[in-house]
Write a structure and sequence with these properties.
The complex is a heterodimer of chains A (712) and B (54). Helices cover 51% and strands 18% of the residues of chain A. Chain A is of the alpha+beta class and 712 residues long. In chain A, the strands form 5 sheets. A 7-stranded mixed β-sheet of chain A has the order 14-26-25-24-15-22-23, with helices on both faces. In chain A, strands 6-5-7-13-8-11 form a 6-stranded antiparallel β-sheet, with no helix packed on it. In chain A, strands 16-21-20-19-18-17 form a 6-stranded antiparallel β-sheet. With 54 residues, chain B is mainly α. Chain B has 3 helices and no strands. Chains A and B meet through helix 1, strand 2, helix 3 and helix 4 of A and helix 1 and helix 2 of B.
């Protein structure tokens, strides 16, 4: 923890301080840091404000008198958008990574110093100098190995306790045996010590494990900052007409929620007041907004589009439709946790083979009459020389390099196991709304507007939070339009924006004719002239290119969506894919299971709540950054940016990575085929072991680094 | 030989010093925000401006 962000140091009064964290993606420079820290830090009730620029987060220690919503409003006044994060989302994983890095530091220190002493011994130190150096090596080596080896010893012990064996068992036995033998040699004053080999082995293996942990944490932190995490909840109106904010899980049936335009419903309910349209696309995949009037039931997760509603809660928290989907997702995710990573699969063959070899060496030399001490030394040499540097180091290095390359292209891959599963995929399923399409409305015919019309439309749109206004505003700003001066701006709920421009009444809002009232048309009026602006959910760029590349890779794709059958098949025909419409979350899981049972490994690409279970059930899955929190959490990778080309890029990179990993396995096997007979014959001295180990590690790491070039 | 008796403790002390410095930096959060440290150098009065010590 940084001093400035540690609230304990400033706790001078008895009032308890609260810690809040916000994701502030908009900070870009030193000026932003100063603005945020000075602006928020000087507020009444705030004790410290500290920016973490790498994570794009702001940590605030504050008194109970100021709450998260006020802080977000204050950050907004400074010109930044902020989203609250849960207290310390990465706490536990962070600890694991720090433990590994500390062990890595200690192992590195031990390795270098012991190696320094060993080199003098190898280059001919004799007599008392040699004795002194060996003793010094032991004094440094034993505590270093005891500390740095703990992650491996713990894991090996855990495996043995459950009657299994994993990669850490031969590593632990080899390291402990080599250290014990060397200690014995040191005390009896003869022979050779393996302290440097043991320390070096631990250093290399820890490096691999640390890389794995760093990659996982970095991707997780990236996804964490994408998540909206708006503490779901609602303004509740009590009998006295007073409103207060209630968190989603504290809502009770019978509560009356006020739902503003653009807000998500926090619970299932029945409309009591108001008439509006609800966007269910994130919940069901249905793209057309549904109208809802008094008496209609609405479900949690729907976005209120056109007018404020009062909704009486019928089901909340664990009883909502969303909670059902979450349960389905948990069940579907079980199958994926059964996936065994390639290094673990290799170790299932590797560990018994190494144990047998070492035991054979020991028994063989005993029979040959070498004595237990000599035989044990040779067995230890076999274990040290066969230790799986290629598996322990080369696999994580390849995966970290590949994931780093993908991150630069805007794709966050959650962990190494995900990359392995992406490489296996041979069938793809795409959701429609929000995945093949952008999932947000885009105005279609802005070209028909004159310069003046566009400028007036921008001013009107800027003043409203309505989703359609936001879509019009974004597109106009992207075209470089500057807003016109409009006076007397008012927002009439359910109608739109009104104002006066150069003495003429102007408006942007719902068209007068009822036929277009579905919500995807807005009408701009200046004086007597009205112009309709149609909006539609546009396709993502590069959809056909992405599908072509997938086909070239031998991955046929099809569409499965919860939207109406006609809408889905029209889109599928345009791209040239097969499709299935009107699919419920359960239908999507079933489609994946059917494909999986006929031998396919299925890639699911989707974004909505309704895709969550399918994303969890598929062999591997990708979600766009615009996806729901649930979708992003269920997916193995998240891509930022609009282009769908990210999907074939991920698959291509994953396949290239696995090719390198397999090459490294071949290298490791070749190296063992050379070195094991030497160890068996008792020809391996500590010097040979040290050289062989570093050479093989450098070789596999160099091979893995070829991926950086392929990335460009 | 007398040279060694001096040099070996010096070498070990330097190595240990490096290790302790690294472990301190880890626990002190020096690696929490590498990008931020790079740009904070451009800020003025950073020590007084951002934190109100009361």
């Amino acid at each position: 923890m940084n001093q400035a962000s540690d609230p304990a140091q400033f706790r001078t009064d008895p009032a308890p301080l609260e810690d809040s964290r916000f994701a502030v993606p908009g900070m870009r420079c030193a000026g932003c840091i100063a603005k945020l820290e000075n602006g928020i830090g000087s507020l009444a009730g705030v004790v410290t404000a500290r920016v973490n620029f790498s994570a794009k987060q702001l940590a605030v220690a504050h008194e109970a008198s100021i709450d998260d919503r006020q802080l977000i409003a204050e950050i907004g006044k400074l010109g930044f958008q902020a989203q609250p994060l849960s207290a310390n989302p990465l706490g536990r994983d962070d600890k694991e990574r720090k433990r590994l890095i500390r062990a890595l530091g200690v192992a590195g220190f031990g390795m270098m110093n012991v190696m320094l002493l060993s080199v003098s011994v190898w280059s001919g130190a004799a007599g008392s100098t040699r004795g002194l150096f060996t003793w010094l090596s032991a004094l440094i080596g034993v505590p270093v190995i005891a500390y740095a080896g703990r992650p491996f010893f713990d894991s090996a012990l855990m495996a043995l306790r459950h009657g299994r064996t994993n990669m850490d068992v031969p590593i632990s036995i080899g390291v402990i045996l080599a250290t014990g033998m060397s200690l014995y040699e040191t005390i009896t004053g003869g022979g050779e010590a393996y302290f440097e080999s043991a320390a070096m082995l631990l250093f290399f293996l820890l490096a691999g494990r640390t890389l794995d942990a760093v990659m996982r944490d970095r991707a997780r932190a990236g996804i964490e900052s994408l998540l909206r995490q708006q503490a779901p909840g609602a303004m509740v109106l009590d009998d006295n007409g007073v409103t207060r904010w209630v968190k989603a899980n504290a809502l009770a049936p019978g509560d009356r929620m006020l739902v503003a335009v653009g807000e998500n419903l926090a619970a299932d309910g029945v409309v009591e007041q108001g008439t509006s349209h609800c966007d269910l696309s994130l919940v069901s995949g249905e793209s057309a907004p549904q109208s809802c009037a008094v008496g209609d039931s609405v479900i949690a997760g729907a976005v209120n589009l056109s007018a404020p509603l009062t909704v009486r809660v019928t089901a909340s928290g664990r009883d909502t439709v969303i909670a059902d989907i979450a349960r389905l997702m948990d069940e579907a995710g079980q199958s994926r946790s059964r996936y065994v990573r390639i290094a673990d699969r290799a170790s299932r063959l590797y560990a018994p083979a190494v144990h047998t070899l070492a035991a054979l060496a020991f028994v063989g030399w005993m029979i040959a009459g070498a004595g237990w001490h000599h035989s044990l030394t040779i067995a230890a040499a076999v274990l040290i020389i066969t230790c799986p540097c290629a598996l322990g180091l080369a696999v994580p290095v390849s995966q970290v390099v590949a994931a780093g390359g993908l991150m630069r292209r805007g794709v966050l891959v959650k962990d190494g196991s995900a990359l392995e599963r992406f490489a296996q995929v041979d069938r793809a399923l795409f959701d429609k709304t929000g995945t093949i399409t952008l999932g947000r409305l885009k105005p279609l015919d802005l070209d028909r507007l004159t310069q003046v019309q566009a400028a007036v439309a921008l001013t009107l749109a800027q003043a409203s939070r309505h989703p359609i206004a936001a879509a019009v505003r974004d597109e106009l700003i992207a075209r470089g339009i500057t807003p016109a001066p409009v006076e007397d701006l008012v927002e009439i709920s359910g109608e739109g924006m009104r104002g006066i421009y150069r003495g003429q009444p102007v408006s942007l809002g719902r068209p007068a004719s009822a036929e277009d009232a579905a919500g995807s048309v807005t009408c701009l009026t200046i004086g007597d002239i009205s112009t309709a602006i149609r909006l539609a959910d546009a396709m993502r760029p590069d959809v056909t290119a992405a599908m072509d590349r997938l086909r070239h890779m031998g991955i046929p794709a099809s569409i499965i969506s919860g939207d109406r059958v006609e809408a889905v098949s029209a889109m599928a025909q345009a791209i040239g894919l097969e499709s299935q419409g009107h699919a419920l979350p359960q239908d999507k899981i079933n489609a994946i299971k059917t494909l999986q049972s006929s031998g396919y490994r299925v890639l699911m690409v989707g974004d909505g709540l309704n895709d969550g279970p399918a994303l969890a059930a598929a062999t591997a899955s990708i979600a766009p950054a615009s996806a729901t929190d649930m979708g992003q959490q269920a997916a193995d990778a998240v891509f930022t940016g609009d282009s769908l080309i990210a999907v074939p890029v991920v698959i291509g990179t994953a396949r290239r990575t696995m090719r390198i990993v397999r090459q490294n396995f071949a290298l490791a096997i070749g190296y063992n085929a050379l070195a094991v007979p030497l160890a068996f014959a008792g020809l391996v001295t500590p010097l040979v072991a040290a050289i062989a180990m570093s050479l093989s590690s450098v070789l596999v790491v160099a091979n893995a680094l070829r991926l950086t070039r392929a990335e460009r | 030989m007398t040279g060694l008796l001096l040099l070996i403790p010096v070498a070990l002390f330097l190595g240990l010093g490096g290790l302790v410095a690294f472990l301190w930096a880890m626990s002190n959060g020096q690696f929490e925000d590498p990008d931020g440290s790079a740009v904070r150098i451009l800020l003025e009065d950073e020590s007084e401006g951002n934190v109100r010590r009361d």
